[in-house]
Amino acid sequence: MLEFRGLLPRLAARILDIIIIGVPSGFIVGFSFGFTYVTERSDNFIFNIVMLCLTIIYMVAVPLRWKGYTIGKRVCSIHILTMNQSPLNYKVMLKRELFMLIVYPLSFGILAVISMIMMVTREDKRALHDLYAKTAVVSDK
Questions:
Q1: N or C: which end of the chain has fewer CB within 10 A?
Q2: What are the DSSP calls for 85-114, one per residue?
Q3: Is residue 67 part of a domain?
Q4: 2 within some domain
Q5: Pick from 34, 2, 14, 33: which is nearest to 104 by CA?
Q6: Domain count of the chain?
């Protein structure tokens, strides 16, 4: 039987991914721009686009390669799976990640808060992006 995982382990996994992958990537990309992205508006835009692309690549490609895991998810002993338990594919993972990266900010975070509430209150702990992509996050146990 699947043990669905809610807000706290998923949030912990995302924070670990940011620390392990996002911060070093930010420094590497920042050094490549000479840190002018802090003062130059055009460099800031390019820096943000590069970081967004790296985030999408990591959050889509790594779970595909590692059967639903990112580094953070592996540390937290959770992983992503499709609701029909078929293998993850690019379409599913892109839908899931782009929902989080586009729809949540466009709603000024309102839908992100609703998703957090859903992860706490729903029996299957699925958020809006999970419902849209037909995925769930489950425990390894």
A1: N
A2: -PPP-HHHHHHHHHIIIIIHHHTTTHHHHH
A3: yes
A4: no
A5: 14
A6: 1
